[in-house]
Adenosylhomocysteinase (Pyrolobus fumarii), 418 residues
Amino acid sequence: MEYRVKDLGLAERGKLQIEWAERNMPVVARMIRERFEREKPLKGIKVGAVLHVTKETAALVRTLKAGGAEVRLAASNPLSTQDDVAAALVKDGIEVCAWRGMNEDEYFSCIEFVAKWEPDIVIDDGGDLHAMLHDKFPSIAGKVWGGTEETTTGVIRLRAMEKQGVLKYPVIAVNDARTKMMFDNRYGTGQSTFDGILRATNILVAGKVVVVAGYGWVGRGIALRAKGLGARRVIVTEVDPIRALEAVMDGFEVMPMREAAKVGDIFITATGNKAVIRKEHMELMKDGAILANAGHFNVEIWIPDLEELATEKREIRPCVTEYRLKDGRRIYLLGEGRLVNLVCAEGHPSEVMDMSFANQALSVEYLVKNKGRLPAKVYNVPLEIDQEVARLKLKSMGIEIDELTEEQKKYLESWKLD
């Protein structure tokens, strides 16, 4: 077995963390796993994954293994790995290359550790594995049966690859499943983003002005939670007129970032784009402004501009870097501008990741069953999988719903006036 983790001695603690997560993930860690153990739909399949190495990811990986797969796992962020979980997975027979605090070279070497393994199926979070396979190892990419993508940023990259005609295998956009996007992105990120901000700063949100950049599902969730925590004002910045209008109708203020920069106390980016907060905005911010990023990559808050404006910087608390500007103002950057919920906290609650990773497990099974039948395109999660995840989640919660009668089905299928 090959692996690179911080300390195998942490495995027992990691095992307890995984146990706690799986207790709250009945769909992927019990319902789907029990079927996978019986049927072995992934027997002999090599699954290469680049994901945040957390206790929730462990639940998914263990279910894939229960289904007969060999799994190799690397981190999708240099600062998001939970080292005790990584150690526990190695003890559980998973080849892992991940530890918290990797430098850039180490980060990409671990992704290469997965790519060179020549996996049959690839699971990615952010698109770095997909990009590396196509850019550095095209011959390996050409043999991949199919892949999945966990997050908005990665789906954007994959759709660009498809548009340019370079995508070599079919990819299922797990991020876009309704049981992922509407719950993980909205409720998961909404809660976990503030979990990260509060663990890092211990500030009071009530009475503050919170600025949310982007009003996709992630931005919606963050804005909603800011309001619930008592923010005095919640301001949304957007480039999409439809989303901006939606934010207005949802009761939030909408304005350009150049105006929001003057009044905000806490700024949270959630766009998937680069340089959303940059020099021209930082120059307008009040003393003590806090900057946090909820997007996948550390490019939304343009750190080179912050470095250029600062005369000095220091880590004033774990996860909090103070930048002092020439005029004496201070701006505080959380988690080096990386995913604040995973760098400064533990990521999404297990309950919501249950649905996201159930989609992943069932999408991997779908790709195996449909090997060679799907052209190299980006696909939505099949509706039957999306609905099955919702049904299983409701069942695990003890909730029943109505079913259409045959008469109702016939009525919905008819177009005639009578």
Observations:
- The chain has a mean pLDDT of 97.
- The chain is about 45% helix and 15% strand.
- The first strand starts at residue 46 and ends at 51.
- The CA atoms of residues 64 and 361 lie 7 Å apart.
